[in-house]
Specification:
By secondary structure, the protein is α/β, with parallel strands linked by helices. The protein folds into 4 domains: about 5-130, N Utilization Substance Protein A, Chain:P, domain 4; about 140-205, Beta Barrel (OB fold (Dihydrolipoamide Acetyltransferase, E2P)), CATH 2.40.50; about 205-350, 2-Layer Sandwich (GMP Synthetase, Chain A, domain 3), CATH 3.30.300.20; about 350-410, DNA polymerase, domain 1 (Orthogonal Bundle), CATH 1.10.150. The chain has 15 helices and 15 strands. The chain has helices at about 5-15, 20-40, 80-85, 105-135, 205-215, 215-220, 250-255, 260-270, 285-290, 315-320, 325-335, 360-370, 375-380, 385-390, 395-410, and strands spanning about 45-50, 55-65, 75-80, 95-100, 140-150, 150-155, 160-165, 180-190, 195-200, 225-230, 235-245, 275-280, 295-300, 305-315, 340-345. A 5-stranded mixed beta barrel has the order 5-6-7-9-8. This is Transcription termination/antitermination protein NusA. Keywords: Cytoplasm, RNA-binding, Transcription, Transcription antitermination, Transcription regulation, Transcription termination. It comes from Faecalibacter macacae. Belongs to the NusA family.
């Protein structure tokens, strides 16, 4: 490989990786210095001139002229007779600069040079890639699904950078096809050896927040502020928004006419149910809005324990708690306070079993309903041994349920 071929080869790297000229020259000089040190023990008395734009590369070996037979180190000194073959009027003590052809370094050295060049270019590329994605953590990226594996999905962006969407960062109802376009946020960037690993997420609350910014101009422009976002990915989410302009309805602006604005976000999140809530500093009012659609009778706030006791009518409990307890759980996270739901009149009235979903597992409730027991009192009137035979539930499980139900009817 001569000088021109080497430079042309290296310029290919430059064009492919978009390395600037100064960095290109620095990498090539460092690589050549490394090869020279291996061959001569030092690179101190070598000058390297690189001009990648012209395809020009020169290596000059600088040595001091000594008398014939007195050279102790061929890397540092050159005998007079050999120096005069380069230029006939050299004298002892003068410095000789001799141009060294690349091929004179030997085949092994040239191969090492080539391999080192590739390694340094890759190192530079990986470093740039790491810094680039480290700087956009929390931002949305778009890519094409390249490969679907059991534990993760590989996505390629426009620059063919590989990104990984792990199983735990996927919405449960996500379904992928190779070649489809996918949106997610950059959740983390890790180094595996020298190669950056870009981790994406579609379950992070930040992903929903960024979707709001993209789809709703008032949020992008700063007219509406997102105060908090909480999610149970694929099921339900709550977003608290605030406008500093009284003329702008933040909830209406986010939802749009007949849900037109939020529809694309819901579709992106696989039909995740999104509640948009008008933020307020009035904690009682904020909790009331957060527990929508339940109608709240009264709220008692204990600031020392950071808890709120919310009183609702018996027929509003299931709405306040929500399916699987999602509504009250998300409301607690949204307002930053533990919320306990209190059923008014529970001491005197029977209570639907479904209203205990925050305390009793769904499958246990279904086991009772399967034998016609769908209220608290209908279960409390039964014999424990009889319930064990009829439901196939463990006696311990049934006793736990009875204890929960009894507490509702105690003073």
């Amino acid at each position: 490989m001569d000088n021109l071929a080497l430079i042309e080869s290296f310029v290919d790297f430059k064009d492919e990786k978009s390395i600037d000229r100064i960095t290109l020259m620095k990498i090539l000089e460092e690589t050549l210095q490394s090869v020279l040190r291996k061959k001569y023990g030092s690179d101190d008395n070598f000058d390297i001139i690189v001009n990648p734009d012209k395809g020009d590369l020169e290596i000059w070996h600088n040595r001091i002229v000594v008398a014939d037979g007195f050279s102790e180190d061929d890397a540092l000194e050159i005998e007079l007779a050999e120096a005069r073959l380069i230029e006939p009027d050299f004298e002892i003590g003068e410095e000789v600069s001799e141009r060294i052809p690349i091929e004179s370094l030997g085949r092994r050295a040239i191969l090492t040079l080539r391999q080192t060049l590739v390694a340094k270019v890759m190192e530079h590329d990986n470093s740039n890639l790491y810094e680039k994605f480290k700087g956009i953590i929390g931002e949305i990226v778009t890519g094409e699904i390249h490969h679907i594996r059991h534990k993760h999905v590989i996505i390629m962006d426009e620059e063919q950078n590989e990104m990984i969407l792990p199983k735990e960062n996927q919405i449960p109802s996500d379904f992928f096809r190779k070649g489809e376009t996918l949106r997610a946020i950059v959740d983390d960037v890790k180094l595996r050896g020298s190669k950056p690993q870009i981790i994406l997420s579609r379950t992070s609350p930040k992903f929903l927040e960024k979707l709001f910014e993209q789809e709703i101009p008032e949020i992008y422009d700063g007219l509406i502020t997102i105060k908090n976002v909480v999610r149970i990915p694929g099921d339900k989410a709550k977003v608290a928004v605030e406008s500093y302009d009284d003329r702008i309805d933040p909830v209406g602006a986010c939802v749009g006419m007949k849900g037109s604005r939020i529809h694309s976000i819901v579709r992106e999140l696989r039909n995740e149910n999104i509640d948009v809530i008008n933020y307020t500093n009035n904690m009682s009012l904020f909790i009331t809005r957060a527990l929508n659609p339940a109608k709240i009778s009264n709220i008692e706030i204990n600031e020392e324990e950071n808890k709120a006791l919310v009183h609702v009518a018996a027929d509003e409990v299931s709405k306040a708690i929500g399916k699987g307890g999602y509504n009250v759980r998300l409301a607690s996270k949204l307002v930053g306070m533990e919320i306990d739901i209190f059923r008014e009149g529970a001491q005197d009235e029977d209570v639907e079993l479904t209203e205990f979903v925050d305390e009793i597992d769904d499958w246990v409730i279904e086991a009772f309903k399967a034998i016609g027991l769908d209220t608290a009192k209908s279960i409390l009137e039964q014999d424990v041994d009889d319930l064990v035979k009829r439901t196939d539930l463990e006696e311990e499980t049934i006793q736990d349920v009875i204890n929960i139900l009894k507490s509702e009817f105690e003073d």
